[in-house]
Amino acid sequence: ARQRGAGQPAIRALELTPQRMTPPTHILVGTIGRVFWMRVDGRGTFQNSLQAKRALQRVVSQGMKNLVVDLERCPMMDSTFLGMLTGAALNLRESGSGSLCVVNANQRNLQLLTSLGLDHILELDRDGRLWEAERKTVCDALQHCGESTAECKEVQTQHVLSAHQALADVSDANESRFHDVIEFLEKELEAGGTFYIDANES
What we know:
- This protein is of the alpha/beta class.
- The chain contains six helices and six strands.
- It has a six-stranded mixed sheet, with helices on both faces.
- Helix 2 (79-95) packs across helix 5 (153-168).
- It is globular.
């Protein structure tokens, strides 16, 4: 098995055991002036990342350029959620304008984001200075996300694969880190098999 480098936070992407029970996560969304604000209330995992992705895609298709992902109430993210954020930010970059800003990230999430090189793709607000006016009114603007989750296992597997491919494309180190996961998911899609993802760190 490939060994993790010293100092790198663990990201367990796949495990062939049932998912452990965790408190439910709510994705809250709202538009504040020219900003689309998404708050992750709970863990950001493969279970809610497709819903979040679809919400981001919807507002971008409507012309929204300023996206904020608020992690104040998010204790951790798994690799699928991280890859979803990466893909959303890269799509904005390719469109030629706009940004995806991560605010209120705790130390664990900051370490995950920077260890994967995502601080070069996402805008990380480390000191709480960005979108100061919007922060004051955000609670009144948020409501539960109405986007759907995966309709079937194949859609969910393809989403997880795309998220990890986005991470792998960021750097050679990420490509090496997620190579086995991507290979596994590609085989699962071909075979139509079932997999479980452990959103907890090892």
